[in-house]
User: Fold this.
Amino acid sequence: MSPILATLLGAFAGFIAGCITGVLHTKGNINALLAGILMMIALYSINLRLMGQPTVSMLNESTLFTQIQSWWVASGFDAFFNNIVLSLGAERFSGTWLVFSVMVILTLMVKVFLDYFLKTEVGLALRATGDNQKMIRSLSANTDGLIIIGIGISNGLVALSGALIGQYGGFANVNMGIGMIVIGLASVIIGEALFGKRTIIIATLAVIGGAIVYRIVVTMALRVDFLDSGDMKLITAVLVIAALVAPRMVQARKEKKRRLRKKAELLQRKEGEVHSA
Amino acid sequence: MLNLKDVSITFNEGTPDEKKALQSVDLELKKGEFVTVIGSNGAGKSTLMNVVSGSLIPDVGEVMIDDKHVVHLPEYKRAGFIGRVFQDPMAGTAPSMTIEENLAMAYSRDKKRKLIPGVTKKRREMYREYLESLNLGLEDRLNARVGLLSGGERQALSLLMATFTEPHILMLDEHTAALDPSRAELITEITADVVKKFELTTLMVTHNMQQALDLGDRLIMMDKGQIIFDVSGEEKQELTIKDLLDEFHRIRGKQIESDRAVLG
Assistant:
């Protein structure tokens, strides 16, 4: 099977799983978090069945990345770029950079798609469902349907990421998704703290930026001598706490400064009045 | 336009808390009629509104809009032709979205929502024109988040969002009750204007008797889940608060001094 088709099918499977979670939540009246957990443990068994064993190696298979690499070489761009890079005195234009470029392009494609979608009539209704469900229902939107589609899309994106990571690493393991929720949440929170969420374009940028910053910070923290890879969860927890608390402290500091300035101005004015009187 | 036949609904049936919220209510609204509904707490006004909007299904009885049976039509589907404004100014708008996005959502009310942008250049001009009619300067703040608006501004926006697609029925549920007197008066004025402009069939619940007398061309009074008084035309124009209270007294034959304090 073509790796591209397999990747898309993976994303679609995630979309369906998300929709089922949405149905459990809206039609079955199951708490959102519980519906998600139920779906997750159910899928664990299903994944195990599909894979047949806990770990499957793809090292000898053709993946999205090996395919792109072979296209790249075949197209002649590889030689072209390498000549330029080499003539500039640098090393070979390596495959890592190719993967990197492909990922950047894919991420931007998803971002542009989301930015557009969230501004369409359906997208606006989906956002309003999170903001004020009563209101958007009174504007004739089927909130249950929107919740199902919304979870479906987000799970489709999660599955797409999983498919890419699996192909990049060359293996799939039933446990590779464990802890991903916390990392995702940490990335979103860090992104919002750093970039804000004034508009949709900024909000999606914040999610991407947050994920990158999170990885950078964790990698740098792990380079510190007394920390080892077992401390990753602790680092994540500390990071999330910092991202949650820091903006509030900055805000409080600003407010305090502002009040002090006002106070000083008032004093000055009063003094001025005394002098002129 | 709107037709309720023999509508009854009982809450907590068979328990000590049993409450007959509506008892065989018949009500017919003609096209373009503006009806105000008054009554003390627990009289069944809100239940009546919820039965019409679809958030409650009556035990028995028929609800028809434009000669279509709608009793089993879910709330969100009925909302395609019912515009609503709630008592709580927070309830009618999405706070973290902008003014133009909120208007765009209201614009899609009577259409199928598609994968096309909700705000386009052409539509933005239309939203701006509608906002100008409010005279609140909101047309210059299209990209402001609605959460930043005051309660009065939000309620004016909710009212606009509920009406500019010209729904078949407009329902106002004590929509000025949470505002200060001057803002309430402003919203009342805007209400009268838009209802007239779009010739909307309107059902308005209010606790303010003066407002019920000033607005609309028909008035109904509810008590204990029944419509006990229904007056329209000239007769309604000449009505005073005292008349209303006397009427209530005559029909119910009981002391209403406490109600006078609440409703006056």
Notes: The interface with chain A takes residues 53, 75-80, 82, 84, 86, 90-97, 101, 104-106, 108-110, 113-119, 161 of chain B (CB under 8 Å). Chain B has one domain: 2-96+150-263. The mean pLDDT of chain B is 90.
